[in-house]
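Re: weekly structure request thread

Next one in the queue (523 aa):
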Amino acid sequence: MFVKTYCAAVNGLEVTTVTVEVSISHGMLFHMTGLPDAAVKESRDRIVAAIQNIGLKFPVADITVNMAPADLRKEGSSYDLPLAIAIMAANEQLRTDHLHEYMLVGELGLDGSLQPIRGALPVAIRARAEKFKGLIVPRQNIREAAVVNNINVYGMDSLLDVVQFLNGTRSYEPTVIDTRREFYEQQSHYELDFADVRGQESTKRAMEVAAAGGHNLIMIGPPGSGKSMLAKRLPSILPPLSLSESLETTQIHSIAGKLNRNVSLISQRPFRSPHHTISQVALVGGGVNPQPGEISLAHNGVLFLDELPEFNKSTLEVLRQPLEDRRITISRAKYTLEYPCSFMFIASMNPCPCGYYGDPTHHCVCTPGQIQRYMNKISGPLLDRIDIHCEIQAVPFAQLSQMQPGESSEKIRERVIRARNIQTERFSHLPLGGGREGGRIHCNAQMTERMLHEFAEPDAASLNMLRMAMERLKLSARAYSRILKVARTIADLAGSEKVESMHIAEAIGYRNLDRGDWAERGI
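Done, posted below.
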């Protein structure tokens, strides 16, 4: 007997519908075609045990399995369920009149239980696009899959549940989640707040500017000055995620298997802070079984690299292209994948190996050569791609001991949102595809060179100020563009339609870590 079931293959963010074809005839062999990997080939043993342990019989016959399209690699254990159902249906242990209405995904345990899989959310989106009546997933994946509306999503505990459901001997209700209610309820709660930070007003201002324009930022200062504390509070002043951004972010985390089983949608901007021993593959993605890297897990959020010079230099250099294009293309011999990675890049570092160069209260023991080698771990091209450079000093005891809290994140976020609304209105007339991502421009950091001439053109006095700064700091053309973008954001925060000299001056002040300035200090 010949039977078809339907499932899906996830490659990057692209999901392809896979048709599982099973034909049973006289014989004793088991054939599988369609480029299955080792995990898919091993599914036969899991399926045999699962079928037997739920009280049914695995057919003693010649079984031929084809997974179409045959030229697409099938990876992972999510094909166990559709394969088992197709085999039982071909063996006439299961009704076939409703099989074409459902997409099935799930890994089988030897006892017939259904185990969670990766990528349930993008699979659900694909099932809806293909007009399937329903999607059957393991119970643990039900919350992430059920956020997709206009399709019935069923969470099952075992293979026996699926058999009874398809045979009509037991009824199950689809899971319904009020996506918008859950999304907005979880969105406003932040555990960390800028009110906890004493002093550091200039750094707070720099972080407000960075959040308002989506700019990259680096903090440099001695140990214990609050760099990590400030960085961890940055998400609390960023504009809230839109529902479409949340859905895209959740898909990436679903594919990577990083989604909490009790969470249906990621409602707050992600904050990723990998250790400095991270490899290139873990940072940008890839591997034998390709997975999103940290830069993609930080999509629509923040990537924080603490102690930046401690990272491998070659690992840092792979960030240069994603910071510009906001997408990462991973090309290997057997596959090519593309992941989005539009994130705010926040970094921190000490000014020297001992950490106390320029500190008024501690003596630096580093030689000029040691400091130079330490700073050279960060290349000029990478530093150019960081819009805001911020020096930070340790907070004096008088400020640290003050009981009154600083300005709350809520108040700072209100100003940031107002500035972002100005930018949204400014770029709303641009055609779709105007940005580097091929989509809409959302913030000043994403402006192209042509947009700079239209929206951030400096006047004669500002242009002269910029010329002097570029000569003194030995800035690159890319740094020139970054200054104009930051100045446009400062003007938006001030409610100014034009970029004025005061905005340019503040933006230039955020480039004080460029190589020319360090050279003047005798390093």
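The two ends are 79 Å apart (CA to CA). The CA atoms of residues 427 and 441 lie 6 Å apart.
Next request, please.
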